[in-house]
User: Fold these one by one.
Assistant:
Number 1:
Amino acid sequence: MWYLRKIYFLCILVWTIVIVTGHSHSHSSGNEPPAYKYSSSANQKNVIQDKLPETDYDLYVRALGSTIFISIVPFFILFFIPIDGSVEKQPLLKILLSFASGGLLGDAFLHLIPHALTSHDDGHGHGHSHGHHEEGQHEPHDMTVGLGVLGGIITFLVVEKTVRLFSGGHGHSHNTDKKKDDNKSKKTNKPKKEEIKIAGYLNLAADFTHNFTDGLAIGASFIAGQSIGYITTITILLHEIPHEIGDFAILVQSGCSRRKAMMLQLLTAFGAISGTVISIYLKGSSDGLVSSLILPFTAGGFIYIATVSVIPELLEGSNNKFSQSVKEILALLAGVYMMVLIAQYE
């Protein structure tokens, strides 16, 4: 189908940019761990090579300009994603949902958690060894990152439970609910107000915090110098394009129209802008907070959305054809592989 060819073309284009940019970046960045852009060493390593901006005004302009650029480019790409809430587009929508779940899980396990662990080890001077002290006592495990991930999962569960309690227990719309709502709307002859599933709001919250960490990274990188700032901008842009496509699919599946989903996606850009401003104001001194709390918490939110909200949607419905199932699994793997490439080359 023509719309599938468009999606495949976009994916191939993004992969090509990732590989080409990553190859050129790998020569300049060495063997840094995934998501190196957040670490304090990244803020100091290139200070000698790159002259710092003369004024804070120049620093804010460059960093905020890059942040806005990263937010706008994926927004325009969404115009070429031919999905809506209609029955005819459900097969394509489920393929994009599979891609979204793979991207969320890949982002959590291959990007956010590894970086949080790496930064945490660098800050505390020890690794994840299960060795012993010289006195024979067992070295205690550092559970900060793991608790942060669990905290994110539990928090999102509590939020969804709370919303369901106050909304009468309707978290996900099923066919019977739709029939009842249709009957009610026919009786009252009033236009039905657009309702959004809880998964849509949870995804927006997770996307906002994720964009906030990206903003912190952009601000910290421009503090280090212009070249590392622009390199960080490119890597985050490549990371955001597939992420925003997946988030767009989740919002549409949650009941948003195309227009509303795009507007909500654009609103999450304020998370990146606020992160950039705070990072510059604090002069990159927020690394510890990011690595120990925000990144693991966001990873937990991504895991919860992918496993509780998105994947169950793929298992529901009457369209269980073998060809459709294969496409959805391949799309999920494509989402994971996209994050593998980005984590490898950033």
Number 2:
Amino acid sequence: MSDEEVIRRRLLIDGDGTGDDRRLNVILKNLTKWAHSPEPIDNQIALDRTLWQLGLCEFSVKRSKILRKTSTKQLMKYSQIQEKLEMEIGKTKDSIEESKNNLKQAKIWKQNHVMYDLLANTIVGHPARKETNKMLNNLQTELKNLKEQSKSLEMKLDLRKKQFHVLVTSANQLRAMLDEVENEDSNISMSLIDITNSPEPEPMSE
């Protein structure tokens, strides 16, 4: 039988793995022995053992409540963090798409503007030197502005990509933290099984 099968059977028999079922059976046996024992000394020993077992069960119940409350708070906190990260990721995606569209429109506008200027020059023919220089200077200024605008958009797009990468990395780290907490809970359950299955101390005789 594999270790996983052994653990599964123990959990099925023992409830949450704290040994309460076995303790209740022992308490029942001690009560029966206490009720049928004619000797006062034996009655006191059985009573002490029963009270000790009841104390262990009460401690287990309190511990389970505290663990459940703590786990619930942690899950709520992690859910809030996950929702916040998902919202930030959505905003970053929208911003990236908007930047891509702006860059695309800027490139199209630049291409159309250049073609328009070429057609205008062809139709007009050969204008005067002064007008040509003035037009050339204007085109160079506009081209420079377009290059700066394109560079700015590309830098903004690159920044949005980096931000998106950071958010995705944070989401992956959160998932790893959740997996680690889940593994720790499993290890705690395994430790509790080993503790509850350890032999109980023999009561001291008077």
Number 3:
Amino acid sequence: MRLIKSFGINRYSTFIHYILFVLLLYNIYLSLTLLKASSLSKTECGNEKSNASYFQLKLSNGRWDSRRMVKTFDNVVIAEQKSSGMVCLATQCSVDRLHSIVELAKNWNGSISTAIYVAGEELYYLQDYVRFLRRCYRSVRQTVTFHLALPANQFPQSTQSGFTTDQLPCHKDPVIVLSNLMNQLPENLKRWRTRMPYPQNHLRNLARLNCQTHYALVTDIDIIPSTDSAILLDTFLSERPKCLKCVYVLPTYEVHRSANSPKNVTELIKLKSTGLARYFHMEVFKLNQMPTNFLMFEKSSKKYNGLHISHKVPKYQLYYEPFYVSLNNVPSYDERFIGYGYTRNSQVYEMFAAKYQFEVLANIFTFQHSFASQKEKSHYREIQYAENLALFNKFKKEIAARYLLSHYL
């Protein structure tokens, strides 16, 4: 009897162990299935097809401006070299001007934050061009971080450009490579670009606010700094006590396309003496740069070596638009100004109202590879200038009220 009971108990115990073993295997199976599903889900998310796979962006994300006219994307391609030094160069352009980044990055020799305005299928041509630049130019790959801005009514419809730069040799002229890409744009997009209201101030804010340094130099893409400007400015700023309302002007020149890029002030003045360089916008709009006083800058650069303050801008003059280094506490660019006319004027006007002091630096400068001329403006440019002039007159009244000015210019 005891044997029968013992046998029954053993059978029952074996059955229980069998059930537990089966349940254990089932739990392992479920766990593995869930892990696999989770892994697949993560893989699918990580490899989610993007409309621009080289850029780190999804068009459904981004940040709209206050009027939902422009959508911006930060850090779509990040520089390989960690941001260092005291000054970041913040610049902006449309796609067709991006070739200037090659010389700019080489001369600047420091961190660069670049905002690009791109419409429709331009996004994919831009992607191909940035791949070419980063593959072929070490300075671009290491120092330039890219951001994008897209107009609300011009998002891309297709998913690729149908063109690749991956097989292009690096000795190809970046100007020609970009021109070939732009020639392949759809005709309707080419026509739209000629009259697009270019949002310069949106782009300037996008580039400057993405600088990771205390100081920034805000330029347009074709404004090239003299050699090793970032290094010189780092030394200059590190040796000076911080001044919250001091900004440092880099005088800007136009250099003829037939001339070599000047490496220092001596070469710049020599070009000027032979008629191959002149003050920026001297023929187009002299008031744009007049308060800088280029002659004092040149005399001080000849007399003393090293980067130093040549002189202060004693008095504000309306329409002054210098390129300058400042702390990132300066007023933002007013994004109501769309298109051409009074975009940088307005920001500098507010800075003088807020009592910022402009000081001109010696032995450093910027230049543009062109002699600007009074060409006939397009009908669309004329409209933009007129609209922005009306806005600028209103803006001056707002600034006077904001800063309690007794009068305004």
